[in-house]
Specification:
The chain is of the alpha+beta class. Helix content is 49%, strand content 12%. It starts with a helix and ends in a 13-residue tail after the last helix.
């Protein structure tokens, strides 16, 4: 049973007097053009809600904020989660819903733990832009405090 699931074969029957490379190529092209939908793999990662529903699995959803969408996409890609984003504009401010397969719930939980930990670490780190602007202010104050010497001696005294 396991071998039948892991190995898939395709049978092609061609009726010809002599099998040539050109005839085999034509048969394979016809098979691929007709069976494109049958051989197509399901979509992975971010996809439309319709594509997610076509995979015949239960779909669940969670709400996410606008600021975290790109960061969530990176984490979902890392964990191989199939998901769909929908924007709900009926409320102000608009909210975003993430739809995912029901069987991915455990994986999604792990992904959200990592995602939230990453966001907390980002909040704890000092902002480089703020630090840079503070250093610029200190440098300006040092320049203003420095006294200008109007007369200079050459060091030659008689």
């Amino acid at each position: 049973m396991q071998e039948e699931v892991t190995q898939k074969t395709i049978a092609i029957s061609v009726q010809a007097g002599r099998l040539t490379a050109a005839l085999l190529q034509k048969a394979l092209k016809k098979l691929l053009s007709e069976g494109k939908n049958k051989l197509a793999q399901p979509h992975k990662g971010k996809q439309s809600l319709r594509q997610l529903m076509k995979q015949n699995t239960g779909v669940s959803n969670i709400e996410i904020t606008n600021d975290n969408i790109k960061a969530f996409e990176q984490t979902a890609k890392k964990y191989g989660i199939d998901f769909s984003l929908k924007k709900d504009v009926s409320v102000e401010p608009p909210r975003y819903l993430v739809f995912f397969k029901g069987r991915d719930a455990d994986v999604l939980t792990a992904a959200f733990k990592e995602f939230s930990a990453k966001n907390l670490d980002r909040d704890k780190k000092p902002s480089i832009h703020k630090l840079l602007s503070q250093m610029r202010e200190k440098a300006k104050q040092k320049v203003l405090q420095r006294e200008k010497v109007k007369t200079k001696d050459r060091g030659l005294e008689l």
